């Protein structure tokens, strides 16, 4: 009977959040458990959590990247950190790009360029200084941002708009493009008449494509078909990409998401770890299979 009475008393403590503080340790634990249960309720939990945080200090704004014209619709923000430290930011706006350089205490507006075409994405070339590469519809354009000139362009012959592109971190002039047609294409910027490798890797839009930061044979893709895929590219020993002697292998398909996966990223510090984010806000962290690690390292 004593145990039953004690259990009943503890239950009353769980329901009573407004009781006097400091009665005993059991009552304090009851409050903690009650709050935890309250936060897990489907209805009203999010709002109650927000209400509790109203008294917290707001985040401090470090800087504001303001260009010489208002933004029309930012598509992407590219960071130039390939030299081992953060140097510049490119804001890819709907019809222009804006470059901001890092000073000692701030980010300074450097340059901008208006376009007669709508931009979708852009990144810095890790092998050539002052080169920004952008995509528009099914075309790729390269700009010398220091001299404000277009230095290359190509029609990719994808059947739908481009969604992303990335530079090979180890081999200069090699890029990969992804498209809403489900294909990825590999290009040598010295021979832009045709891609040296074309692969249909997803059943729906390819939303992002990224080379591994350490091992350029590994490639990560995400798609609105709800999957994340890990690929392996084998380049010829002499790097004569014009002969198109390149091998492709699908290593693994990850099906952890229930909705469209919009972005995937490799870790900057761990060669084998990557994360993906889907439309429903779910973030999944995965790693390269152990057997594949050994094939690369040994």
From TrEMBL:
Ranges of the WD repeats in the UniProt entry: 155-190
Domain called EIPR1-like beta-propeller: residue spans: 109-230
InterPro entries assigned to the protein according to its UniProt record, in alphabetical order: Beta-prop_EIPR1-like (IPR059104), EIPR1 (IPR040323), WD40/YVTN_repeat-like_dom_sf (IPR015943), WD40_repeat_CS (IPR019775), WD40_repeat_dom_sf (IPR036322), WD40_rpt (IPR001680)
Compositionally biased spans, kind Basic and acidic residues: 12-30, 40-52
Keywords: Repeat, WD repeat
Keyword DNA damage: no
SUPFAM superfamilies registered for this protein in UniProt: WD40 repeat-like
Pfam family, one: WD40
GO BP term, example: protein ubiquitination
Disordered: region residues: 1-52
Family: Belongs to the WD repeat EIPR1 family.
UniProt-recorded name of the protein: EIPR1-like beta-propeller domain-containing protein
